[in-house]
Amino acid sequence: IDICPTQAIVAPYELDARRCISYLTIELRGSIPEELRPLIGNRIYGCDDCQLVCPWNRFAQFTPELDFHPRNGLEAPRLIELFAWDEQAFLKRTEGSPIRRIGHESWLRNIAVALGNGPKTDAATRALERRLHHPSAIVREHVIWALTRLSA
After folding, report:
1. Average pLDDT of the residues in 34-58
2. DSSP string of 87-146?
3. I need a labelling partner for 146 at 20 to 30 A (CA). Which of 2, 24, 39, 81 fits?
């Protein structure tokens, strides 16, 4: 229960999905609640911390099935590179991946939060500043939040 970064597991067998990082980064459309953003860390698409400690999953085994392997250069992503993707690159690189369903706007929102939770670097600041005038108010809101955190 304590493994959850946002304390979404509120009791045995009870989850507050509104606090769950998987919900916040995949299902939620709109703004991520500000108080939960720091708890997301560098996660940009879901969170499996609860799965890692689940007793049942100790039986899980690595699969040779290629459909479950990382693809399209996403096995060791760099946030700044991912944040630079335009919508066309996002659609091309996420083809065949469940990541695609969150859409480019949520992708950028999530990466802005991750960058805001990361170390302050000139590269991160420049990447965020390049998105300050993005057409999406959601993206701009999260970029401003991230820049504010990095400047603190």
Report:
1. 90
2. HHHHHHHTTTSGGGGGHHHHHHHHHHHHHHTS---HHHHHHHHTTTT-S-HHHHHHHHHH
3. 2
Q: Domain count of the chain?
A: 1
pLDDT at 74: 57
Comparing 43-57, 84-98, 125-139, the range with the smallest average pLDDT is 43-57
* CB-CB neighbours of 16 under 10 Å: 14
* pLDDT computed for residue 71 by the predictor: 61
Rounded distance between C-alpha atoms, residue 64 and residue 18, angstroms: 34
Q: Are 80 and 130 in contact (CB under 8 A)?
A: no
**What does the DSSP 8-state code read for residue 45?**
S
| Residue at 14 is within a domain | yes
Is position 62 within any domain? yes
Q: Is residue 108 part of a domain?
A: yes
Three-class SS state of 50: helix
How many CA atoms, within 13 angstroms, populate the side-chain half-sphere of residue 61? 3
